[in-house]
Amino acid sequence: MIPVNSVLQVGYFPEIMQAEIDRRFKPTHHLDPAAAVPAGNFEAILIRSNTKLPEALVKQLPKVRMVATCGVGYDNLPLGYLKERGIKASNTPGVLNDAVCELAIGMLLGLLRRIPEAQDFVKSTEWSKGLFKLTTTLAGKRVGIAGMGRIGQDLADRLLPFKVEIAYCGPNPKDLPYTYFKNIKDLARACDVLLLACPATPDTEKMINAEVLEALGPNGYLINIARGSVVDETALLYALQHNKIAGAALDVFENEPNLNAAFLNQDNVLLTPHIGSATTETRIAMTNLAVDNLEAFFNQQSLLTEVKN
Ligand code: 8YV
User: Fold this and answer.
1) Ramachandran sector of residue 140 (left: φ over 0; alpha: ψ -120 to 50; beta: rest)
2) Is-catalytic flag, 242?
3) Which of 227, 242, 281, 283 is catalytic?
4) pTM confidence score
5) Is 70 in the pocket of ligand 1 (CB under 6 A)?
6) Ligand 1, atom 13, residue with closest C-alpha
7) What does the pLDDT look like over 98-118, one tens digit per residue?
8) What is the tens place of the pLDDT at every residue in 141-191?
9) Where are the alpha helices (DSSP H) in the chain?
10) Which ligand 1 atom lies nearest to the CA of residue 92?
């Protein structure tokens, strides 16, 4: 049981998620994270990973001991400050892997086979005038995965039946049958498709820079389903505009939802509006896991999926 008036829900939640929250308990709403918090003795915060939790907001809530974020990423949380205050945090790993992997593979195939452009070709009168251009096959390509965590490993499992070779990079090698590279530039050089599935941390910030894109090369493709901050967008735009890489499929951007308009002028991109986990089933599962974590906290049990901070 979650006590009444004990949880502050920060930011907007899509309708289906809100309905699920309301089915389980009644939080107090606080739509604008920058505004002064409503009065109350809140012990926990519920938020989504798309909404940044300002340290200043938490400072106004001396009784808060737990933050549940609805999303696998927790780069929206002021982790240093939470740690200082001994505030626990939970995220929602695992339940979104299927949806995120499906989108990543859809984007990869869409980019290589130019599916959106092919549909435009059919919908316009172009087909009656000639054939659609030839594209490139995924089979036989070398796919590099940056970040071999839960999502990275699920992606590799799903990609193998497409007859690709897998390599990866990350802080440490894992007990996996794929080639490991310590360095992202070496991974980029060794692959045709570079798939980003790593968390947003100070170490991964702007990790995909001009040098890495140069190493990926003019036949290489970049897929980003991680976070916009992992990519130096100025360098990526330059690489796309000057055909330094073959193309990019991007679900996430540095400044969402107001992405750099220069991406819109490129025909070697496939752009989606941060929809990795955006299926009804997944969003319901994520919401329930976030609320389960809140319940565990109020029942003085261990959190189900605690962020190790
Ligand atoms: C959503 C995500 O944007 O899980 C994440 O980290 O980026 C996505 O699932 C969001 O968190 C939904 O609430």
Assistant:
1) left
2) no
3) 227
4) 0.96
5) yes
6) 48
7) 999 999 999 999 999 999 999
8) 999 999 999 999 999 999 999 999 999 999 999 999 999 999 999 999 999
9) 15-24, 55-59, 79-85, 97-112, 115-123, 150-159, 184-189, 210-216, 233-241, 280-298
10) 4
